[in-house]
Amino acid sequence: MIKKALLPESFNLVFLSLQADTYQLRASQNIQLPRKQVFTFFQDPRNLPEITPDWLDFRMLDVGAGKEVFESAEYDYSIKWLPWLWRTGWRSRIIHYRPPETFTDIQLNGPYRLWEHLHTFEEIPEGTRVTDTVTYRLPFGLLGKVVHRMLIRSQLTDIFSYRASRIDEWASGNFSWKGDRQRKGR
User: Fold this and answer.
1) Torsion sign (Cα): 64, 103, 171, 60
2) Rounded Cα distance, 55 and 58, in Å
3) CA–CA distance, 11 with 4 (Å, rounded to integer)
4) Is residue 81 part of a domain?
5) 100: three-class secondary structure by DSSP
6) What pLDDT was estimated at residue 97?
7) Residue 114 neighbours by CB under 8 Å, 6+ apart
């Protein structure tokens, strides 16, 4: 869990209940870098492990689609969905791609009944506002609702808070790469 003091000042996270079993998470933060530079960072799937908490044990299984996302690109990875219970595979497809404004990925296979993640990059006077809008539905009906209330909502809060903190580190030049690949510059 990220302490509130470590979160970027501009970070905002809200949850909405859209229907009886469908939820939406909206996370946004301002980054003091040009939109094209921010978009370039986000469109490289190899950066995803760098902004994902270690406790998810995120593993990219296939980056066969390349170093940049594009419409219809598919990616395979695995995570520890409920960290103490099991590892699950996850396959994503990019269904909408309009650089440098937006792209959307959906879960084809994975732990959710529905997962649609819209990434938007808006030019603002101080740089770029990055907004993640995730619409999701859990399996298991009533049990899924209980698990959402007791666990998933707080887990997603932790994931997107960590992500915001790491993105802020990257944007400010204080980013230390977790993986084997080291890069120079931002």
Assistant:
1) negative
2) 8
3) 10
4) no
5) coil
6) 97
7) 22, 107, 135, 136, 137
Instruction: Give the count of domains, the chain.
Output: 1
Determine the Cα–Cα distance for residues 159 and 168; give it in Å rounded to an integer. 14
In the prediction, which pLDDT does 185 show?
Answer: 38
Q: Could you give the CA distance from residue 29 to residue 128 in angstroms, rounded to a whole number?
A: 8
Average pLDDT, stretch 103-110? 97
Output the pTM of the full model.
0.89
- pLDDT, one tens digit per residue, over 145-172 is 888 888 899 999 999 999 999 999 999 9
Nearest alpha-carbon partner for 168 in 37, 59, 8, 4: 8
In a domain, 107, yes or no: yes
What is the C-alpha separation between 172 and 169, in angstroms, rounded? 5
CATH number reported for the structural domain that contains residue 151 in this entry: 3.30.530
Tokens 């666990």 identify what position?
A: 151
* 3-state SS assignment for residue 128: strand
Quote the domain boundaries for residue 31: 4-41+94-172
